[in-house]
């Protein structure tokens, strides 16, 4: 369906100007290889700056790679970038081109620019707005809507004029649960009815775990893992995550707590530890049983998430906050 | 939340990697130039309700204010004609050149061009649709300014119909210039500055009577496309307008319009794929 091989993109170094320091050369994608199959929801997961958006821009023909090939449904997108727009629908992160239009006109215009006749564009507009629950907002300009509603309206424009591949860059950011459900229901319907493939860029680990068939984890421009979410989690299946939240600060005067510190990832009052199950049990017994319990505000024991997988794979140090849980 | 397992999908080939290269899939339809242009034009025109009308008021009041100020300086005749024509075309310059340059500058820097660039639409449709809409925004302001100026300076209203040619042709030239500036400027602030400068030039070189200017400024005046719109319009206030010259001036506007819109289309292509 969509095959990417050896895709490489380097942003040249910029020279510093007055008040603006120069930036060194950045290799945003480094020999990226992927194979997306027909009908799957394929995710690109990674922290900010991992190269997800750069990769997507090359797949959609918006950017020329320095090296490598992109083939979508048998078409060479590097050689013929203009064909991408006739194969896929792209939902980018920006809505500035549509902001001042009403929801209905944004959907209709996008459909017409996707080559639909007027009548067909209007019929599809009405059907998509109804499907996503946007009919009541149809005559409101996008910029008067809340962030989540605007995102949903932009998603609607991506669905008018059906395409076999949807490339969605963080489609549900800022949405409430009802809107998210509408998005995934619409995606599922298109997969079931016409085998639509979805390439999804996401930050959201929980969403990634629930909706994706397969996921590629990107870090520093490279694919560091690619498997089903369950398959990836098996790599760290032997471990349990313990989260400790201290009331004010950790009671480091207690030797058993101090001993845990080197293994914990600290963020403020929160400690996060990945441990073998029996170790975890011992730690929980220690902190809940003894004097440490007084200093403890909350604790959780959890099976590993994709976030833990990412950390276990050796994702760049300190970049874990790029992956938002929840 | 996804409830359809990938394995049960129709035509599913998930188990086998798609190593075998099959015939390339059929491409979706391409948007043709005219329908796409009309769709962009209509969408842009609808933005006027939200954002452009207040600015158009500013443009009109600015031109009317200038005419009232100049009333104390010029005393009828050729100078009055130049002031009225210049002020009317200034409305076109304000909206088509200045505002369009700002619009494309912002669209480009914010990534809004991606929306159009990932649709199968001819670049010319996007540029011409937007330029046409901005030229249309100027119609009410230009007509109001021209009528007010004629009444103020006691000029004949008989040949105001020529605005039906002046607005689209001067509009094409100035909107093309505005779009090209907005799409070529490396930063949006620069696009704004260039748009403002273009409008200031149209104001100074178009409204102020040319005869009192030094040679260098007269030369700059000849380079500015709005000048030809002003001259064409000013000629029609005379008792016996020389229509050959009017048409000649308008032909220059049309020529500049074709070239600048072609440059803007090229600039759009360049800005859309980086």
Quick overview:
The complex is a heterodimer of chains A (326) and B (274). Chain A contains twelve helices and 14 strands. Chain A has 326 residues and is of the alpha/beta class.
Structure report:
The complex is a heterodimer of chains A (326) and B (274). Chain A has two domains: 2-228, Rossmann fold (3-Layer(aba) Sandwich); 238-303. Helix content of chain A is 34%, strand content 26%. Chain A has twelve helices and 14 strands. In chain A, helix 3 crosses helix 4 and helix 3 packs parallel to helix 5. The longest helix of chain A has 18 residues, at 177-194. At the A-B interface, helix 2, strand 6, helix 3, helix 6 and helix 7 of A face helix 1, helix 2 and helix 3 of B.
Number of separate strands of chain A: 14
Outline of chain B:
elongated
Distance between the termini of chain B: 36 Å
* Cα shape of chain A: globular
Proportion in helices of chain B: over 70%
State the major sheet of chain B: none
Structural class assignment of chain B: mainly alpha
CATH superfamily of the largest domain in chain A: P-loop containing nucleotide triphosphate hydrolases
Judged by helices, strands and strand pairing, the structural class of chain A is alpha/beta
- Annotation, overall tally of beta strands of chain B: 0
